[in-house]
């Protein structure tokens, strides 16, 4: 069943948002690169699983989740959806969450270490986001990051 979205003023600014290479993704890439990490972008590591980037050397898969679309606990929508598209929004957000969970499981099944980073972690404290990736790459130790 395909239902049409009703155009609303609130929804219009969301149209045309890039699905790949969002601003936080690019910012994280730059910081990871500066920290000496080498990575591949948007590789398909399993059927239906394409992380935003991977560190092949460490088998770490990184997903950068937009606060809005992925329902961040701090910045995601906390009030019920209203308006003509309410049920479509509810469905869409539930689907996004299910896809996130599925991607994480697929990557883990393929023996990748998964790091999911919120958009706000990148925009507010990119060094901490890099530290999380580093911890995943080095198994939690602070040494051993080969350049
Ligand atoms: Zn957030």
Describe the structure.
The protein is of the alpha+beta class. It contains five helices and four strands. The chain has helices spanning 9-12, 23-34, 86-109, 119-124, 126-137; strands spanning 40-41, 53-55, 60-65, 113-118. Helix 2 (23-34) packs across helix 5. The longest helix has 24 residues, at 86-109. It is globular, with a radius of gyration of 17 Å. The chain starts with 8 loop residues before the first helix and ends in a 10-residue tail after the last helix. Mean pLDDT is 88; it is low at 142-147. It binds zinc ion. Zinc ion binds at residues 67, 72, 74-75, 118-120.
SSE map:
Layout: H1 9-12, H2 23-34, E1 40-41, E2 53-55, E3 60-65, H3 86-109, E4 113-118, H4 119-124, H5 126-137
Parallel strand pairs: 3-4
Antiparallel strand pairs: 1-2, 2-3
Sheet having the most strands? 4 strands, mixed
Q: What's the SSE pattern?
A: HHEEEHEHH
Number of helix segments? 5
Distance between the termini: 51 Å
Total beta strand runs: 4
Q: What integer value in Å does the Rg equal?
A: 17 Å
Task: Give the structural class.
Answer: alpha+beta
Kindly estimate the percentage of residues that lie in beta strands according to DSSP. Answer: 5-15%
How helical, in percent, are the residues? Answer: 25-40%
- Ranges where pLDDT stays below 50 over 5 or more residues in a row are 142-147
Give the ligands present.
zinc ion
Q: Give the strand line-up of the largest sheet.
A: 1-2-3-4
Q: Based on CA inertia axes, which overall geometry fits? A: globular
Mean of all residue-level pLDDT scores:
88
């Amino acid at each position: 069943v395909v239902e049409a979205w009703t155009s609303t003023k609130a929804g219009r600014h969301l149209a045309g948002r890039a699905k790949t290479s969002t601003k936080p993704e690019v910012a994280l890439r730059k910081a990871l690169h500066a920290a000496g990490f080498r990575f591949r972008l948007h590789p398909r590591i399993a059927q239906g699983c394409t992380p935003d980037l991977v560190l092949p050397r460490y088998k770490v898969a990184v997903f950068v989740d937009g606060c809005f679309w992925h329902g961040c606990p701090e910045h995601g929508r906390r009030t019920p959806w209203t308006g003509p598209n309410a049920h479509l929004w509810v469905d869409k957000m539930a689907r996004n969450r299910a896809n996130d969970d599925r991607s994480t499981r697929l990557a883990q099944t393929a023996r990748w270490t998964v790091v999911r980073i919120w958009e706000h972690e990148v925009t507010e404290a990119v060094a901490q986001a890099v530290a999380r990736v580093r911890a995943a790459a080095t198994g939690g130790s602070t040494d051993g990051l080969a350049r």
